[in-house]
Specification:
The protein has 6 helices and 18 strands. It is α/β, with parallel strands linked by helices. It has a 4-stranded mixed sheet. A 4-stranded mixed sheet has the order 7-16-17-10. A 3-stranded antiparallel sheet has the order 1-2-3, covered by helices on one side.
Length: about 375
């Protein structure tokens, strides 16, 4: 503790009859000589400001991290053992006694379903760059030159995405000479943001930020089981019965005729998934989706990558728009669709409470 004028403000304050009192420790004396003094008696404004600032931080931390229940501790222990794709994930549940979701398995890579190409076959058409010193620069990098129009789609200093949604991001791959810290390998470096899984009274589990997230920052991939579109139709019918779905079509294809039949695969994160399994919908989301290609030469099996759309403050929930554009993965204008059946609206009733809420969400 720093001392000013022979005193130190301890982390205690009280209010009596409208006057704020601080507990002071006097320099050179033991705690038996501590005294309560009104703020008007203090001649150390910098120390008081420091104390007040730290007090607010302690209160915020206490509100964000109340004492853990047994189920919360077990959930966090499960995540420590399975969620190894980034910083530790905490769990907050002051709503009910729910813990680890039943029949859910946390994964940090894809599960490949029946009739889906395996990773080893996806590398066959890859080519790599031979950039000097492992640093990829514009038209000198074969990956950037031939796939990204000679542009680096990330800020070189911070790794923040700097291209509009709707563009496919082609990162360097295992056949490239550049290092793992290459500025064109942002998503491959994993999740770096600090998150918590939080229980909400109306929506169930969701995800909040425990540290501020700047705009354009990579959050995570949408991991799950990759299945064929035919299998997705079968599962989708079952999921619709309960009004829930974790299906995300891999529908960003380069077919010039825009024939979506060329897009054959879907990610199902119902049973297998990562932190993105818990992302909720919002009609005014703070996350945006980009298709990203890494160690894979088949665009039909691109990564679904989440980036922050804007600054996300501590305690704010991370959300994306389930009703996204099929071709461009951009959030569509949040407006009511008169063609949506009433039973769908009731089953997929939106609870985001955004100012532009359309009142419902539908499967992706």
């Amino acid at each position: 503790m720093d001392y000013t004028n022979g005193t130190a403000v301890l982390p205690v304050e009280e209010e009596y009859e409208g006057v704020v009192y601080y507990l002071l420790k006097w320099k050179g004396y033991d705690d038996n000589f501590n005294t309560w003094e009104p703020s008007s008696n203090l001649d150390c404004p910098d120390l008081v400001r420091q104390f007040n600032r730290e007090q607010r931080m302690r209160e915020e931390a206490s509100n964000l991290n109340p004492p853990k229940t047994q189920n919360e501790l077990e959930f966090e222990a499960y995540l420590r053992n399975h969620a190894r794709d980034g910083p530790p994930i905490s769990v907050i549940n002051d709503v009910d006694d729910q813990g680890v979701p039943p029949d859910f398995q946390y994964v940090d890579d894809y599960i490949y379903g029946e009739n889906v190409p395996r990773p080893e076959t996806l590398k066959e058409t890859l080519f790599g760059c031979e950039c000097e010193d492992g640093i990829c620069k514009g038209f000198k990098c074969k990956c950037l030159k031939e796939m990204n129009k000679g542009m680096l789609y990330y800020r070189r200093d911070t790794g923040q995405v700097n291209v509009k949604p709707g563009n496919v991001i082609i990162e360097c791959n295992s056949r490239c000479s550049c290092s793992a810290r290459c500025p064109n390998r942002v998503t491959q470096q994993g999740r770096k943001v600090y998150l918590a899984i939080r229980r909400f009274a109306e929506k169930g589990w969701g995800v909040i930020a425990t540290k501020r997230i700047e705009a354009g920052v990579f959050i995570t991939y949408y991991y799950g089981e990759i299945i064929t579109s035919q299998e997705a139709d079968i599962r989708g019918n079952k999921y619709d019965e309960v009004g829930r779905t974790y299906l995300f079509d891999l529908d960003f294809c380069d077919d010039p005729s825009n024939d979506t039949s060329a897009c054959l695969y879907t990610i199902d994160a119902w049973r297998f998934g990562n932190i993105s399994h818990f992302f909720n919908h919002s009609c005014d989301p703070n996350l945006v989706v980009y298709p990203v290609m890494t160690d894979n030469g088949d665009l039909r099996l691109h990564h679904v990558a989440f980036f922050s759309k804007r600054v996300i403050e501590v305690g704010e929930e991370l959300t994306f728009d389930y009703v996204g554009s099929v071709e461009k993965h951009e959030s569509v204008e949040a407006k009511f669709d008169e063609n949506i059946k009433p039973e769908i609206i009731e089953k997929y009733k939106c609870k985001c409470r955004a100012g532009n809420c359309r009142g419902y969400f539908h499967s992706i």
